[in-house]
Amino acid sequence: MEFCYDESEHDVLIIRADGGLNSQNAAEFVKGLEKLIDAGLQRIIVDCTSLDYVSSYGLGVLVGLHSRLRKHGGDIKLAGLKGTLADLLHVTRLSALFSIYPDVNRARLAFRPKDA
């Protein structure tokens, strides 16, 4: 996982997910994000355009991240879903849990205040 923090977009953390999200790399992914969320980060976009694989453990990580952010008044948005991952979220009905956008720019726009 590659972390890319974009300060110019209202404190939104953009995470570029390259390769896969599974039990081998999810622990590091979650540990870093939990610290940021506990420190006050409330808005995360996961850029899935280069994400090729998500295991059931990885899905659990995304759901847990969503829950933790909600408890802190935040939100997570998924962008650029394709192929198997998009199908998997639809079949498991997790697509109703997450805000899903075709690309990062549209996800950024969704975080903008309504009156801006």
Q: What's a concise summary of this model?
A:
The protein is α/β, with parallel strands linked by helices and 116 residues long. It has helices at residues 23-38, 56-71, 83-91, 104-111; strands spanning 2-6, 12-16, 19-21, 43-47, 51-54, 75-79, 99-101. The strands form 2 sheets. A 5-stranded mixed β-sheet has the order 1-2-4-6-7, sandwiched between helices.
Explained architecture:
It contains four helices and seven strands. The mean pLDDT is about 85. A hairpin with a 5-residue loop joins strand 1 and strand 2 (about 10-15). It is α/β, with parallel strands linked by helices. About 40% of the residues lie in helices and about 25% in strands. The protein has a single domain (about 1-110), classed as STAS domain (Transcription Regulator spoIIAA, 2-Layer Sandwich), CATH 3.30.750. The longest helix has 16 residues, at about 25-40. The termini are far apart. Helix 1 (about 25-40) runs parallel beside helix 2.
Task: Tally the beta strands.
Answer: 7
Radius of gyration: 13 Å
Report the average pLDDT across residues. 85
CATH class descriptor name: Alpha Beta
Order of helices and strands: EEEHEEHEHEH
What characteristic shape results from the CA principal axes? globular
SS element count, helices:
4
Distance between the termini: 32 Å
Q: Strands across the major sheet, in which order? A: 1-2-4-6-7
Percentage of residues in DSSP E strands: 25-35%
| Low-pLDDT residue intervals, each spanning 5 or more residues | none
Number of domains: 1
The major sheet is characterized as: 5 strands, mixed
Specify the structural class. alpha/beta
Q: In the CATH classification, which architecture applies?
A: 2-Layer Sandwich
CATH superfamily: STAS domain
Q: Helicity range of the residues?
A: 40-55%
CATH topology: Transcription Regulator spoIIAA
